Amino acid sequence: MGYVAVTAGEELVERAEQLFESQRVGDTEDVSVDQIDEQLSRLTARAMGEGGLYAPRLAALAVKQAQGDTVEAAFLLRAYRSTLERFDESVTVDPSAMIASRRVSPAFKDVPGGQILGATRDYTQRLLDFDLVGGSPEDPTAEWDLTDEGDPDRLTNVTELLREEGLLHDPDEPDVDDPADTTRESVTHPAERDEVLQELARGETGAVTALGYSTLRGYGRVHPTLAEVRVGELPVRVEHPYTGDDVTVTHTNVTESEAVVPVYEKRDDPQFAFGYGLTFGRNERKAIGMTVLDASIQLESEEAPAENAEFVLDTIDGMDSFGFIEHLKLPHYVTFQSILDRIRAIRERRGLSEDRRVGPDDQSAETPVSGTSDDD
Amino acid sequence: MADPHDRADRFELIAACEAETLGRFANDVLADDPPLSVRQEPRPQLVMQQVREPVERRSFNLGEVLVTPAEVTLDGARGFAIVPGKNERAALSGAIVDAAVAGGHETTADIVEALEDIDASRREQRRRAWAESKHTTVDFQTVEGEQ
Predict the structure, then answer these.
(1) B60-111, pLDDT tens digit by residue?
(2) Three-class SS of residue A39?
(3) What ipTM describes this predicted complex?
(4) Is A71 domain-assigned?
(5) Whole-number Å distance between alpha carbons of A25 and A41
(6) Do A236 and A167 sit in the same domain of this protein?
(7) pLDDT at A1 over 60
(8) Is the pLDDT of residue A375 over 80?
(9) Any domain includes A185
(10) Alpha carbon separation from A65 to A33, A74, A136, A217, A280 (Å, rounded)
(11) Domain residues for A54?
(12) Angle at which helices A41-51 and A70-81 pack, to 10 degrees?
């Protein structure tokens, strides 16, 4: 593998970038970062989750700069993040500390704490709302007659309920307080569970969804029942340098998903296996996909793509796939010239004429041209 | 109720405070030109958020959170603040406000009142959001014998 540099007029590259920027500017009113932050939070959620950086306002800026391309926005966030120092690791927080704004349990109808639908269109038809064309400034909740529910309850995780019934095995390993950090050390296989979860949390939404979907379509053995899906705020707590107290700096908006998977053949005592998903922002599709993949990877099999940790972790990162796929459009002149030379040489040896016919005596079997290249 | 005189509570209230409010109080504190030294320049940094997943109860790194910390000494009193996001001015202002209250600056009463208001406002917002969510609580009914 080798790279061959090409040069081009810097001014022309700048012109191309200016033309790209002019397409964002257009003839309409500029979209503010605040508007993107408030009104297009699903985009910023994707950028933050895939970028591995929780920074809502900068994510909105990145989405604006990337003209809505969330992977590009995540790339911008990761590039920015790479220039910063680490202040500290947070105090480890349990997901049960989440202040939930939405929690549904497809598995347990009467889940303690209730089925809180929260803000969702899950149960309504997907029809275009043409009223939005002219703007819709009215808040449909403005006239709600709310009951004072007091301070938010901490909702018990369904896993804990199952564990109380003995349906979920107790952890085999002691708690690991110093998890691996895949932003600092590359994953080696077999990957540890903390590495898997961190990489899945940073995975590209489409890739995580597609690979999770693959097992539901039969390319794997996991077809889970979701124990719960919840959206809410997790505290970010650090140790105060003066007092030593754990103090809350801020909260991150996150999406969490847990799935139960009946695993009868793996253990003597029939219990549930579990899949888990947690990611920055409101991104239920990704959290559920992550849950399916976590459960699949625990099967430690190579029979299906989703059950192969190495395959999954090597393909879900948006920056990696972005880079490799998109680099194909950059100059590959040496590669292509090499391929051309080989094909021409083979054709010449075979006696192929310009009208593409093989000569009558040609019986040679040449090795076909492979897809390898010299500059990528 | 959070107590702005308590260092840990004050840290959380300052972190939740609007940048403009912190800036205004910091300007008031600095109006008489008290001796100020910046021990830690406000600079965006990262906190890695660690979560203990509920299945194996293992910690893992969810992702990094952008914050801006700052630390000062104001007239002999130390002040420290971290604000979420990239906000150097708010972080430095927050550290000055923290030091002012720690050192009993003459603006302390106003600062404490403002921080108490923030606490009340934050609690009210949280209760309102919770009430809105609870307003959507549903009791799913299973329908037996129907296709």
Answers:
(1) 999 999 999 999 999 999 999 999 999 999 999 999 999 999 999 999 999 9
(2) helix
(3) 0.95
(4) yes
(5) 21
(6) yes
(7) no
(8) no
(9) yes
(10) 10, 11, 26, 37, 21
(11) 12-81
(12) 50
Pick B7-117's CATH classification: 3.30.160, 2.20.25, 2.40.128, 1.20.120: 3.30.160
Number of domains in chain A: 2
Looking at the structure, tell me whether residues A64 and A114 fall in a common domain: no
Q: From the candidates A159, A185, A249, which should be mutated to test the interface with B, based on the most B CB atoms within 10 A?
A: A249
Domain boundaries, chain B: 7-117
Please answer whether residues B60 and B51 qualify as being in contact, where contact means their C-beta atoms are separated by less than 8 angstroms: yes
**From CA A233, how far away is CA A98, in angstroms rounded?**
5
pLDDT over 60 (residue A185): yes
Structure confidence by residue, pLDDT tens digits, A276-295: 999 999 999 999 999 999 99
Domain identity same for A44 and A163 = no
In chain B, the residue whose alpha carbon lies closest to the alpha carbon of A148 is B131
> Scanning every residue of chain A, which has its alpha carbon at the shortest distance from the alpha carbon of B52?
A94
- A146 Cβ contact list (under 8 Å, min separation 6): B128, B131, B132, B135
Of residues A8 and B91, more confidently modeled: B91
Alpha helices, DSSP H only, in A92-192? Answer: 158-164
Residue A54 to residue B66: CA distance in whole angstroms: 6
> What's the average model confidence in pLDDT over A86-93?
96
Q: Give Cα A246 distance to the centre of its chain.
A: 30
Q: Which of B16, B45, B56 sits opposite A193 (nearest CB)?
A: B56
